[in-house]
Amino acid sequence: MSSGLLIVVSGPAGVGKGTVVSLVREKNREVVFSVSATSRKPRPGEIDGVNYFFVSREQFEEMIRNNNLLEWVEYCGNYYGTPKDYVEKELEKGKIVLLEIDVEGAQNIKKQYPKCVTVFIKPPTLDELRKRITKRGTEPPDIIERRMHRAQNELMHSSQFDHIILNDTVKKAADRFLEIICVERNKLTQISGK
Ligand code: 5GP
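A: This is the predicted complex of the input protein with guanosine-5'-monophosphate.
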């Protein structure tokens, strides 16, 4: 996998992955973030090219046809996928590349890059997760139910991940994540003898 470190972070939608990841990126400037493409409409405050590359379904399907994506899924009626070029180039440069994707995507990436490090962020309870999704106020009730159903499924797969982080507070979760990055980075340095 070249000299970089690929870290895949997953966990139920609404668990607060984005907030934890933002804090991690603030504190460790070596970490670069892969912006996914999606056909979902932007939520208020989301910026094209920062949160996601927002594209139409047709544009996304063209990316699939052109083999521009490392992996992709269809989730609650929208496409999500990881642009291949960016990840490969940053890994070549030796960067720590972070992907924030769903569990299916994480499993997919692990098959392609067995040396990647997978991290699962879990909510304190399912009730707490429901509160967090509802509080966000951006999803209609039927989508909330679909997301909760999927969350239960995803939690069942958490034991397949290399690391599990409980997101009780964002600060604690981010600190734990930073430790994991440090440990994995050191392992890699020792293996490659750098
Ligand atoms: P949301 O609509 O809440 O931003 O994201 C929904 C789900 O899609 C989340 O679990 C998120 O991690 C996942 N996701 C975002 N980007 C990607 C991607 O590129 N690939 C995959 N497989 N899942 C993604």
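Residues 13, 36, 40, 71, 73, 75, 80-82, 100-102, 104-105 surround guanosine-5'-monophosphate (CB under 6 Å). Residues 5-188 form a domain with the Rossmann fold fold (CATH 3.40.50.300).
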